[in-house]
Design goal:
By secondary structure, this protein is of the alpha/beta class. It is globular. Helix 5 (142-151) packs antiparallel against helix 6. The chain has one domain: P-loop containing nucleotide triphosphate hydrolases (Rossmann fold, 3-Layer(aba) Sandwich). The protein has helices at residues 13-33, 49-62, 72-79, 96-107, 142-151, 156-167, 170-178, 192-212; strands at residues 2-3, 38-42, 67-71, 82-86, 91-94, 116-120, 134-139, 184-188.
Length: 214
């Protein structure tokens, strides 16, 4: 799935500071409703996002915790939140506004306020900043990523686009620009050992968050 192209206009330092203050206020309002954190797991296609999400869900559930994983691509397909087909990326665009409207009650704690929500998607910048308590960006070396993408049957142009995205750490930089840098975490995702370690780290983070936000 590719996200729609959006225009980004520059603003003055004063406007940026005001924007950050407003986002902080919104974040505090969100936390007052949620008794479990919201997490975004992102990264270039092929880095292992969905595999990690499933393992985190499994590990946390073993201790009696509740986690809901929201795969944005699957949600868009299931609910018809699809736009025009992007020939260059070989997939349809998604209706970002419809996605946000659909998830807002869940992410703001209006429903399921005690359930950990993990969002799985390859882009980070169209979600409201106030939604997430932590953002985990998965990284993989280019040789391994190339093999994974070719195994998926991606055409060479699409493989090259994703490799360039990973080389220039596009998703990581996007996340740091979209969210407070202190909540953005970079994780290596190259082996099964990495996946196990990352899942354990995220589960520990969830437990720490809940302990600090009782």
């Amino acid at each position: 799935m590719s996200s729609k192209v959006r225009s980004h206009e520059s603003s003055s330092d004063e406007d940026e500071e005001s924007h950050k203050r407003n986002k902080t206020d919104e974040s505090e309002q969100l936390k007052s409703k949620k008794t479990a954190p919201n997490i975004l797991i992102s990264g270039t296609p092929g880095v292992g996002k969905s595999t990690l999400c499933s393992l985190v869900q499994e590990k946390y559930s073993q201790g009696g915790g509740q986690i809901e994983v929201v795969n944005i691509g699957q949600l868009a397909k299931e609910k018809g939140f699809l736009g025009e087909f992007d020939d260059a990326r070989e997939c349809p665009e998604i209706d970002e506004d419809a996605i946000i409207d659909d998830l807002e009650p869940k992410m703001s704690g209006q429903i399921g306020c005690d359930v950990v929500v993990i969002v799985d998607y390859h882009a980070t910048d169209f979600f409201p900043e106030r939604w997430f308590d932590a953002v985990f960006i998965l990284r993989t070396n280019n040789t391994l990523l190339y093999d994974r993408l070719k195994a998926r049957g991606y055409k060479e142009a699409k493989v090259e686009e994703n490799l360039q995205c990973e080389i220039f750490q596009t998703i990581l930089d996007e996340a740091k620009e979209s969210y407070r840098e202190e909540i953005v975490h970079e994780l290596t995702s190259e082996s099964q050992e990495d996946i196990e370690s990352n899942a354990g780290r995220i589960v520990q983070w969830i437990e720490a968050w809940k302990s600090q936000n009782k």
